[in-house]
From TrEMBL:
Residues 1-155 form the Flavodoxin-like fold domain. The keyword Oxidoreductase applies. Keywords: Oxidoreductase. This is Flavodoxin-like fold domain-containing protein. The lineage of its organism: Bacteria, Bacillati, Bacillota, Bacilli, Lactobacillales. InterPro entries: Flavodoxin_fold (IPR003680), Flavoprotein-like_sf (IPR029039), KefG/KefF (IPR046980). It comes from Facklamia languida CCUG 37842. Pfam families: Flavodoxin_2 (PF02525). GO terms for molecular function: electron transfer activity; FMN binding; NAD(P)H dehydrogenase (quinone) activity.
Amino acid sequence: MKTIIYLAHDDLASSSSQQFLVASGRHLTEATYVDLGAQWQADPTFDRSEELDRLAQYDRVIFQFPLYWYQAPAVLKVWIDQVLDQGTGLGFIAGKELGLVVIAGAPARNYQLAGREGVTVSDLLSPYYALSRYLGMRFLEPFTIFQFAYLSEAEKMRLMYDYALYLKTGEARRFNDLQDMIIQALQDLDLNLSPVDQVVFDQFVMALEDQAQSLKDYQAVDQWEEDRNV
């Protein structure tokens, strides 16, 4: 499945989060990136025919953007208005997937009904769900990143693989979920090993389980300390 990512940002070069994601995606996947901000600055009118021809080549479409005042940067709305909002020549879009990669500067706990923002990220992104239904696309669970600037190097490494997995599969799985999935798959294998080899294999799986649990414990402590310092 071929994936195209439309980057909606006013100044991509100045964004550390966008630079990190684009570098990760290009290194780990074969996805295509389109810098809408640069295109718009060069010409405020998108060529609808060219844009639709490009869009037709891909199966999974992803809009990637930071939340600016609870919404995407204006360039994404302009692109949608000029390319998708004319009602003709869009039949080929039905059946494609629409995903979102969203970067929020505030912590996740703020985006709750009882949180500081008073709304969820899902609420803010609901227009894209409506757009996907209108176009007959399959809407993917959004991939949301909170407070990129405060992530540790270890967290950025996990983010890199989570992000690449989203581009490849359209599933917003997290590193911990992937670990659990791999461990379960290993446990389900029927390898017909000799007794000695089976012991070695079981020890290997147990070591993976211990590492996964240690990681979860560290993450729980980090979250507790973060909540305590609020």
